[in-house]
Design brief:
Layout: H1 9-18, H2 41-54, H3 66-73, H4 77-87, H5 90-102, E1 106-109, H6 117-123, E2 130-134, E3 144-149, H7 155-170, E4 174-177, H8 183-193, E5 198-201, H9 206-209, H10 213-220, E6 224-228, H11 238-243, H12 245-250, E7 254-259, H13 265-277, E8 282-286, H14 292-299, E9 303-306, H15 316-322
Parallel strand pairs: 3-4, 3-7, 4-5, 5-6, 7-8, 8-9
Antiparallel strand pairs: 1-2, 2-6
Helix pairs in contact: 3-4, 7-8
Length: 335
């Protein structure tokens, strides 16, 4: 499936509605007195329900006036104006997509068949409306384990992260991580060096990252996919770094916390959110020298992973499965 085929007619409209991609440059919006902003995820969830209730698909909004949108969806004038203006910026969006595709990137939305079913199933209405990425999108549906941790870790943590990535590769589990310096990259490196597969859930700079020679080579080999819910040219922000935690856990069948501080930092925030939401079973590395956050995560429902056991594990996936508590059945998307 080439990049263009991932995004259908409905997906084009969802992209126009829910992403800032190409928004500032859209000639359709130039000269308007009122600034326009893409729909927030909560706003898209509400609009999606209204479309379903009206028996309409997103593509039906393209080319419609604000009055027509208001009547079809039974919404107020200001909301209808925002939707109509966003949905009608197809010209510039098409040009921006061609540039994106030529750079080896793709876009997919929650209404497209190529959208990762696992992500939608796990996160439900929290699943990003739009994803941008590079690499084989099918990799996102493979069994995988999230490996997360601090940027600054001790030598024992460094060795554990790399070996854990290698063991995951041997067990045909993809390593899902944030691509940040430290634990993330070490685990992904371990998997890739063992001829495995890795998924990088990016918080920023997707377009710049895929131009790196080593990254590009792994993508071309079909062993690395990078994905982000943010515009590919977006710079770093703390909010985006925190927000992509959902993506890491939502794409994984299990999660391993290598190193976490207590009640501070992105690793702690992501792990506690995943435990509360029950997105996937969470394990925490345990040894005498682990940070306090690892120990506290056990009190919140994480399962212990004794560091000394790793060397003797032949099949990491079987080990994790045997120690995973039964998960309650999750509700449907909008329940």
């Amino acid at each position: 499936m080439n990049p263009q085929q991932k995004l259908g007619d409905n997906g084009h409209v969802v992209l126009a509605l829910c992403s800032g991609f190409g928004l500032k440059e859209s000639p359709e919006l130039v000269g308007r007195d009122v600034p326009i902003a893409p729909l927030k995820l909560s706003e898209w969830n509400d609009l999606e329900k209204r479309l379903n209730a009206a028996g309409l698909e997103p593509a039906a909004l393209a080319g419609k006036s604000a009055d027509e949108v208001a009547r079809a969806l039974q919404i107020g004038a200001s909301e209808a104006e925002q939707i109509a203006r966003l949905a009608d910026r197809g010209g510039r969006l098409a040009l921006e997509l061609e540039r994106l595709f030529s750079a080896g990137l793709w876009a997919v939305t929650r209404v497209d068949e190529a959208y990762p079913a696992k992500l939608a199933r796990t996160l439900k209405h929290h699943a990003p409306a739009v994803l941008f990425g590079s690499g084989e999108v099918q990799i996102l549906s493979r069994p995988g384990i999230a490996v997360v941790g601090s940027r600054n870790i001790d030598e024992a943590g460094i060795n554990f992260a790399k070996e854990f990535g290698r063991k995951a590769a041997q067990s045909r589990l993809s390593v899902v991580s944030g691509g940040a310096k430290g634990t993330d990259r070490l685990a992904m490196q371990g998997a890739l060096e063992a001829d495995g597969v890795a998924v990088g859930a990016m918080a920023d700079s997707l377009e710049r990252t895929v131009r790196q020679a080593d990254v590009r080579q792994f993508i071309l080999e079909g062993r690395l996919v990078l994905v982000t819910p943010y515009v590919p040219r977006a710079g770093f922000s703390v909010g985006a770094a925190m927000g992509r935690n959902k993506l890491i856990y939502g794409l994984a069948d299990y999660a391993m916390v290598v190193s976490s501080e207590f009640e501070t930092g992105g690793t702690w925030a992501g792990a506690t959110e995943a435990l509360k939401a029950k997105w996937c079973p969470v394990f925490a590395r345990m040894t005498d020298s682990v940070p306090q956050g690892n120990k506290q995560l056990l009190k919140l429902g994480a399962e212990p992973f004794p560091e000394q056991d790793l060397a003797a594990i032949d099949n990491l996936r079987e080990w994790l499965e045997s120690r995973t508590p039964a998960q309650p059945q999750q509700a449907d998307l909008f329940s």
